[in-house]
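Fold these two proteins, one after the other.
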Amino acid sequence: MSTDAKHVWGPLTEGLNIPHDLDLGDRARALDQLGVTPGAHRALVGRVNETLPQRAAALLVSARQWPVLAHRMHRIAQQGVPFAAHLARIAPDTAAWRDGPPSDTTARLLLAAHHALTTPLDQALPTGPRVSTTAARSRSATTPDTAPPKQPAPTEPAAPAHRRQTAPAPRQGHGR
């Protein structure tokens, strides 16, 4: 598996078939590997430039991972879905991806574009990372041989992990 295929794996590739020898260093080759023809690519870039502010469009199209996002947009367009309407949701000056350190702007923009393209128009865009159940399952290291013993079923429904409150850890003295 190529280094690019390994590094790009994550939210941007969710639901996509990425070639094991993906080469993002050669944009034309990467687009070809992902099935985006030069004509389709020109149309995608034009649509992005029409939809997003100039700086955001330039950042998105110039990103090393652009071919992966272009592949997703191309697939969406082939399905007859108006991807520009999805993408327009990240255009406002108040969009969440704009907040944060300048060094992470491109990464936040790529992820925001991914969320905009994969979230139905009638739903709000996620404001934080979205966990894929497929990715979570594939990352699990627990196998039947190493699984912890089953616990008895609780008598009350447990709160989801992100809603549980825990007591603060006791402070340790400094021995003075």
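Now the second one:
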Amino acid sequence: MYPDHTPQRSVEVHHPTPIPPPVVHSAPVVPVQPGTAPTVASVVLPDGRIVTGYAIDAVRPEPVAAKPAVSRAAVNVALGGVGFLAVCGGLLLLTSFIAALTAFIGQLIILAAVIFGGWIAVQILGPSGHKGGTTVNIRKAVIKRNHFHG
């Protein structure tokens, strides 16, 4: 069974344990006679066959219990509460929007100031060559204004 070079092993066989079938207790069948004999109905099908059987009454659902009346005051209070919550939520959103818009405008103003300030700094600190503008000697202008001649 095994080749010569492999050692033989003992084989253990497991047999499944059968599960006993469930015990079924059948209720005794008691024939019940109807109070009245049901009527037998026959129906002729379009192909000419006749089907005969008992007519079954339609099952009528139990009447639904009447719902208790809800007062108009309770409905008005509920609707008023929903409206109040909607207004509060809208005001909260409006306030948040205004705060965000204010912050955005403030940031735009700061950005414009930084850009304009940078432009001014470049004009002042940039190369100061003569480009055809008018140069004013402030010392002479002050002296002339105060009428210091001398």
